Automatic annotation (TrEMBL), chain A:
Residues 611-624, 663-675 have a biased composition (Basic residues). This is Pescadillo homolog. Component of the NOP7 complex, which is required for maturation of the 25S and 5.8S ribosomal RNAs and formation of the 60S ribosome. It comes from Aspergillus avenaceus. The keyword rRNA processing applies.
Automatic annotation (TrEMBL), chain B:
This is Ribosome biogenesis protein ERB1. The gene is ERB1. It comes from Aspergillus avenaceus. Belongs to the WD repeat BOP1/ERB1 family. Residues 311-328 have a biased composition (Pro residues). PROSITE patterns: WD_REPEATS_1, WD_REPEATS_2, WD_REPEATS_REGION.
């Protein structure tokens, strides 16, 4: 007879351990256990059978993998924790005795210092692993870099986070590896591709963060401690892979002046370790210097201009050659049944050339930090901004003639009321009135930068002119899928067959009911619109409408018209199809009537539109019914297991398609409202 | 003191009122009262006292000296014995005398020694406010002489009045008096609360009290002034106690210590030990800066199944944009629903909002909270590896041909053939597809024009026996119909085709007669045997007129006829339970007019044989009994395969027409009375590949479309319906047959629990005909 197996010695009962058991086994306190778990990346598991994993009858909530905990037993950090505990006792004792100096000495000199290097190596055995897990790290560190210092968040931590984040941004700028970005209501999403890994993170807008009471900063601080170490190593590796010295040179003074990214200077790492600036950053010094060395400034500017132009030329030349040799050709399948192989979107070179030929000027109301980062990451070398936004700009002079694009985020700017010719004026930088336009440059709203980089090409700037109603800002990550609603495509493309007609009928009925309501709504909207316009006019400060604007509008309208015509054609085509179908049905009816021996009257078949419509609706309904029948028929042939799976899938897909239908109906209503 | 007081009252009364008797009575009353109150033992004394008291008190009243009176009254009982007592008594008498004399007047007249009146004046009793003091009234007037002169006298001198001043009572006398009053030793006058008795102190306690009172050390026998004992001498000894020499360590420095010190010194010199330096801020700063490559020697670690990396957060959608397309904005209803929902129930933690331009975007208030929750998720949420479904339900559905591909199949009833009385048991469409032969309960075989439903030909084979089965001979060169009615099989040539074909077919049948005649007739012994093959005979003249050419008398009821593809052979089955096994299945050769019984014994398992078919291309005979279908190789004469459909009672089966031509696989459909339709792929398994149960009643007949053009099959059931299926068999060995249910054809009425009895296909078109128990046949197209 086989040996009787004892219960709880193998399988799930042995493989899983509850949290209490784990804490007891490690002989540490719960907060320490928490920290250890965060550092080591130990997380609870869900046993396949909870009842088997739990030794007692009470349902335990969290289970850990026993081997994870065993592995923690040999952790050097565990000893550090114990040392810390012993020290805490010593300090408490000396404080109890009133020996404050002793306590402070103990705290200062004997506090065990945690190093997480080995933990990071363990958790991320290869660099790629570390990159893969960088999403959360970056999000949290960017948050902490933007937090105000409190007792929970010491300024040292904030400074460290800021430094690491800026270093990482500099790497992205140098390698042009930023790919996508998105302005959401939560903050700004960025996505970079480093060594084939897509890293996405979220940076909050620069506001004081609202903190509710139920946020435990100790936990976040533990994560931050780990992530700072991780990002430090990652930055070192990234910099050294480029041959740059790490850490980059950090100018404390300019940082204090708000230079942020510009406070760092990247240096190449040569054999004799002599620092050499690879990026010639022409940071115009403070305004006090400016007046004194105006001539020098002018000369320097001239030189820069020359250099800049040369650079642009070079880059363009390089670009063309690269296009000839390096770029991946687009493969298009010739036959419809062939598979389509995925191809990479854009390479770093393309990204680096997007904004390269331009000089940007950021007005003081636009968010400087994200714009500077984005523009630099997409190849722009010359970015100026208002002096109030901090140091490190290419120019603080708004009237600088080299500026090609100005990013403004104000209501409509009337053109023409230029106070003075910028070349002739002296000290014009201070005298440019807000709201004026300097000819020869493109005024755009910040969204233009985002949309351009997401599209990978320069978009029409007139759509993004100040005061214009912006086109909707779309997430670059949403891939068009079947059944899902796509706001880019026209409504007709994605509608299900006959959906519009159905909706029309419904809306006709609804219209009568909700007519009054709508009127009221419309009135409210009008009034609000009036309010808006008033506000805008107040904000704008100028009352002369620019001719350029008008032109733009005309262009727009023209283009719209063209588009509209295209749309009509489509509709016509579809209508003709419909007509064909109608003709067929009519023919069918005639045949039927003939068979029945009745005289077929064309009048009864009728040009009556309502009848036609209803017949169409009927047709659609019957078609749907047929489809359903078909599905039922198919289902009959499946095994029960598969059928259930299918039903599950159908459920989720149905939910999705319902959502899409809802969005479509909303859009339809809106379009109708416009007409 | 009570007595004197009462006496005073009495005095006062006597003074005011002269009535002595009344007074006395009251006095006596009082005294008696008082006496009662007083103790009894003093009765005698008090009586004595009364007398003296009355006198003395009178005086007392005048002299106002209570104490003296008291004293005197006290002393009275003790006067008789001692001299002192006498003296006291004397004085009192004296006093009494004088006072009594003085009372009525300011002066008294006394007789002096000479007998002369002598005025003796009262002593002037000055008031309190008088200047005059009588302090020295009793002063001794003896002058400056030693008192020792009076030692021998009881008095010690004279007062100013010349009266003797008696020597005062000494302390000894008082002590003696007090001693005479007995007080128990240790008497405290207190009551011991614990015992309730008077508290008395013991001798020791009294002694202790005394000592404490006297500031003495209460301990008995303690001597505070004992002589000192010198325990440690204060004198220094000159000679050592031990003669051992002093150890070196007392006076030489330690070498070990020196060694250790030198070690430390060396360490400091070599820089191993650094002097303590308070850490500077720079060190802290440098600590944060990474200065080495952690992944310098990176080695990939194989992925462990238990390691589950944290899932990344999904990228934001359109609705999260600061300026989304307007259709993503919530309308009033949605907004309200969102606001009213519990924060936990919300699908999104934010409401889409359109800010129009970037400057209007406010900070996101839940940012920190969301990041915190992400942190919590990272370390607190259990991770499970879930294989994600490929959310494309189409991929799960079996790859079906599109409905267009499946067409054509029969969908509606086109023609109804009416004429039979009673059930139509059987029908068959001729190989050219123009005619339909039917046989029914009325014993007649009819031939109809298929498309129009017109009856062309009719023959009554028997009076009472129903026609069980009719079958056309395959092949277009001849039109021969085989029908089974009762025990006989009739071979007929209906006069429907053009004369040439009719002639050819008649010749074809007639050729057999010659062959049979050439054969020697069976011996008598063989004739006797039960399983002798029957002789084909010519029909009766009445039948011959109608076109019946030959009759095979089988002696048992034939229920199934199946032609071989070439049209030379056909197999019949007599499924009756009384039929001997050896004659149940017979194969007939048309060209030779020969009947054979290939089976000698009963087919094992599953009751009598039900039906039999030839394989469309191979020399294989399939025989079905109640539960199994067996395949016999006729050329080798052995059992090839047993198919077990799992049905209780097989009603019919059919073999796929393209079996073994395109591929090696034979496909079989089996219908059973227990409502099952079973598809067998013989290559796959003995068991059915698909079991279809779409009928509510028994399945009577199943039939593949005879040509390979339409992969259709149909079944007929007692529930009055036919079901049409698509069943395509591919040449690919890997892919299985695709079966698609297509259509349910309803039209036949159920009569007597029977619905559709047989179904047959048009040889070329996707049309089928069915024979119903309601006496009609229907063409479906």
């Amino acid at each position: 007879m086989a040996k009787i197996k004892k219960k709880g010695t193998s399988g799930q009962a042995k493989n899983y351990i509850t949290r209490t058991q784990a804490v007891r086994k490690l002989q540490i306190s719960l907060p320490d256990f928490r920290r250890l778990c965060i550092f080591k990346g130990i997380y609870p598991r869900e046993p396949r059978n909870k009842k088997k994993a739990a030794k007692n009858s009470t349902p335990s909530t969290t289970f850990y993998y026993t081997k994870d905990i065993q592995y923690l037993l040999h952790e050097p950090l565990l000893r550090k924790f114990r040392d810390q505990k012993a020290l805490a006792k010593k300090i408490a004792r000396s404080l109890g005795r009133g020996e404050v100096s002793d306590a402070s000495r103990l705290e200062k000199n004997h506090a065990p210092k945690l190093t997480l290097d080995h933990v990071i190596k363990e958790r991320y055995p290869t660099f790629i692993d570390a990159l893969r897990d960088l999403d959360d790290a970056l999000s949290l560190l960017f948050l902490f870099a933007n937090l105000p210092s409190t007792t929970h968040v010491p300024p040292k931590t904030i400074a460290l986070c800021q430094r690491l984040c800026h270093e990482f941004q500099h790497y992205l700028i140098v390698t042009n590896s930023l790919r996508k970005s998105f302005l959401s209501i939560k903050g700004i999403y960025y996505q970079a591709t480093i060594q084939g890994q897509d890293i996405m993170w979220l940076v909050p807008y620069r506001f004081v963060q609202k903190v509710n009471g139920d946020v435990d900063y100790r936990i976040m601080a533990t994560f931050v401690e780990f992530y700072t170490t991780l990002l430090g190593f990652v930055n070192f590796r990234l910099y050294s892979s480029l041959g740059l010295r790490y850490p980059p040179k950090f100018d404390t003074r300019s940082d204090e002046n708000g230079a942020e990214l510009a406070a760092f200077t990247l240096e190449g790492r040569t054999v004799d370790e002599t620092p050499k600036a690879i990026e010639a950053k022409k940071s115009t010094s403070s305004s006090a210097n400016k007046v004194a060395s105006k001539d020098v400034q002018a000369q320097v500017d001239k030189v820069i201009k020359k250099a800049g132009l040369d650079k642009v030329k070079d880059e363009q030349a390089v670009e063309t050659t690269e296009e000839a040799t390096d770029a991946i050709d687009k493969f298009e399948p010739t036959a419809p049944e062939a598979d389509t192989l995925p191809q990479p979107d854009i390479s770093g070179d393309e990204a680096g050339a997007l904004f390269a030929p331009f000089t940007f000027y950021i007005s003081r109301e636009a968010p400087k930090a994200p714009l500077e980062f984005m523009l630099r990451a997409f190849g722009c070398k010359r970015i100026g901004w208002d002096a109030v936004l901090g140091d490190g700009a290419f120019t603080h002079d708004e009237t600088d003639t080299r500026i090609t694009h100005q990013i403004v985020d104000r209501p409509a700017l009337p053109e023409g009321a230029l106070p003075a010719v910028p070349a002739a004026s002296e000290g014009a930088a201070q005298k440019v009135r807000p709201g004026t336009r300097i000819p020869g440059r493109t005024y755009i709203q910040p969204q233009w930068v985002w949309d351009c980089m997401n599209e990978g090409k320069l978009l029409r700037p007139d759509l993004y002119a100040p005061g214009a109603t912006l086109p909707p800002h779309l997430s670059p990550w949403v891939k068009p899928t079947r059944n899902a609603y796509d706001p880019r495509a026209s409504l007709a493309e994605q509608e299900e067959e006959g959906e519009a007609d159905m909706a029309e009928e419904e809306s006709d009925e609804e219209m009568e009911e909700a007519g009054d309501e709508k009127k009221a709504d419309a009135k409210a909207e009008e009034s609000s619109a009036e309010d808006d316009s008033e506000e805008e006019s107040v904000d704008g400060g100028m009352d002369v409408a620019g001719t350029d604007d008008d032109d733009d509008d005309e262009e727009e309208s023209e283009s719209e018209e063209v588009e509209d015509f295209g749309g009509f054609e489509d509709e016509a085509a579809s209508e003709s199809e419909d007509e064909e179908e109608a003709a067929r049905t009519q023919h069918q009816k005639e045949l039927e009537a003939e068979a029945a021996g009745l005289p077929f009257s064309s009048a009864s078949a009728g040009d009556d539109k309502g009848k036609k419509k209803s017949s169409q609706a009927k047709k659609i309904a019957s078609k749907k019914r047929k489809e359903e029948e078909e599905l039922e028929r198919q289902k009959m042939m499946m095994s029960r297991k598969k059928r259930k799976l299918l039903e599950k899938m159908m459920y989720s897909n149905k939910k999705q398609s319902e959502e899409a239908a809802k969005l479509r109906s909303k859009r339809r209503k809106m379009e109708k409202g416009d007409n | 003191m009570d007595a004197p007081k009462s006496s005073k009252k009495r005095k006062a009364v006597t003074r005011d009122v002269e009535e002595e008797a009344g007074l006395f009575s009251g006095d006596e009353l009082d005294a008696g009262d008082l006496d009662g109150a007083l103790s009894d033992n003093a009765n005698e004394l008090s009586s004595d006292e009364d007398v003296s008291d009355s006198e003395v008190e009178l005086i007392d009243d005048l002299s106002d000296e209570d104490e003296d009176d008291e004293l005197a009254s006290d002393e009275i009982p003790s006067d008789g014995e001692e001299s002192l007592g006498k003296k006291l008594a004397l004085t009192t008498i004296d006093q009494g005398e004088t006072s009594s004399e003085e009372e009525p007047l300011n002066y008294r007249i006394e007789k002096d020694a000479n007998g002369n009146d002598r005025y003796i004046y009262d002593e002037i009793n000055p008031d309190d406010n008088s200047e005059y003091s009588d302090a020295d009234e009793n002063a001794n007037t003896i002058g400056n002489i030693p008192l020792s002169f009076y030692d021998q006298y009881p008095h010690i001198g004279y007062d100013i009045n010349g009266k003797k001043i008696m020597r005062p009572a000494t302390g000894e006398a008082l002590d003696a008096l007090l001693d005479s009053i007995e007080i128990p030793k240790g008497w405290t006058g207190l009551t011991d609360p614990s015992t309730g008795k008077p508290l008395e102190l013991s001798q020791d306690e009294l002694e202790l009290l005394r000592k404490v009172q006297m500031n003495e050390i209460p301990d008995e026998g303690y001597n505070p002034y004992e002589p000192t004992v010198e325990w440690f001498t204060s004198k220094e000894e000159v000679m050592p106690i031990s003669a051992a020499p002093e150890p070196k360590r007392r006076f030489l420095p330690s070498k070990h210590e020196a060694k250790r010190v030198m070690k430390i010194v060396k360490a400091i010199r070599e820089g191993r030990i650094l002097p303590y330096k308070p850490p500077s801020d720079d060190d802290d700063k440098n600590k944060d800066i990474i200065n080495y490559d952690l992944w310098a020697d990176e080695a990939e670690r194989p992925d462990h199944p238990m390691h589950i990396p944290a899932p990344k957060l999904p990228p934001p959608g359109y609705e999260e944009s600061y300026h989304p397309p307007p259709e993503y904005l919530p309308d009033k209803k949605e907004r309200k629903a969102w606001e009213e929902a519990d924060p936990e129930d919300r699908e999104q933690e934010y409401l889409p909002n359109d800010f129009g331009s970037l400057r209007k975007v406010p900070g996101y208030e839940n940012f920190v909270k969301e990041k915190f929750e992400r942190c919590l998720d990272l370390y607190l949420a259990p991770r499970v590896r879930r294989s994600k479904l490929n959310i494309d339900p189409e991929s799960l559905l079996p790859k079906l041909p599109s409905p267009e591909e499946l067409k054509p199949f029969p969908t509606a009833c086109a023609t109804v053939f009416r004429g039979h009385k009673g059930r139509v048991r059987t029908l068959a469409v001729d190989p050219s597809g123009m005619w339909l032969a039917t046989g029914g309960d009325d014993g007649s075989v009819r031939v109809w024009e298929l498309l129009t439903g017109r009856q062309i030909w009719n023959v009554k084979l028997g009076e009472e026996d129903p026609v069980n089965v009719v079958r056309w001979r395959p092949g277009k060169d001849a039109v021969i119909l085989a029908a089974a009615a009762g025990d006989d099989i009739f071979l007929m040539v209906p006069p429907i085709a053009d004369p040439e074909i009719e002639k050819a077919s008649l010749e074809y049948i007639d050729a057999g007669w010659g062959y049979a005649a050439s054969k020697p007739p069976p011996s008598a012994a063989e004739e006797n045997k039960k399983n002798t093959p029957p002789q084909w005979i010519r029909p009766s003249s009445s039948l011959a007129e109608y076109g019946v050419c030959a009759v095979i008398p089988l002696r048992y009821v034939v229920k199934s006829i199946s032609w071989h593809r070439r049209g030379d052979y056909f197999v019949t089955v007599c499924p009756g339970s009384s039929t001997p096994a050896s004659v149940a299945i017979s194969i007939h050769t048309l060209s030779k007019h020969l009947t054979q019984f290939p089976f000698r014994r009963r087919i094992k398992g599953g009751g009598p044989p039900q039906t039999a078919h030839f394989h469309p291309s191979k020399p294989i005979l399939f025989v079905a009994n109640q539960r199994t279908v067996r395949a016999y190789d006729l050329s080798r004469q052995l059992l090839v395969k047993i198919v077990q459909p799992g049905a209780r009672w097989i009603s019919s089966f059919d073999i796929h027409p393209t079996s073994s031509t395109a591929s090696g696989g034979d496909n079989l459909i089996v219908g059973s009375y227990d409502r099952r339709l079973l598809w067998h792929d013989l290559e796959l398994s003995q068991r059915p590949y698909k079991t279809l149960r779409y009928h509510r009643k028994a399945i009577r007949s199943v039939r593949f479309h005879p040509s390979g053009r339409y992969p259709l099959f149909a079944d007929a059931s007692d529930d009055g319906s036919l079901q049409i299926f698509h069943g395509s068999v591919t040449g690919d060995m890997l892919s299985n047959a695709t079966i698609v249910p297509l259509k349910v054809l309803k039209g036949h009425k159920v009569t007597g629990e029977l619905g559709v009895l047989e179904v047959d296909w048009h040889p070329r078109e996707a049309w089928c005909v069915s024979a119903g128990a309601d006496g009609t046949c229907r063409l479906w197209m």
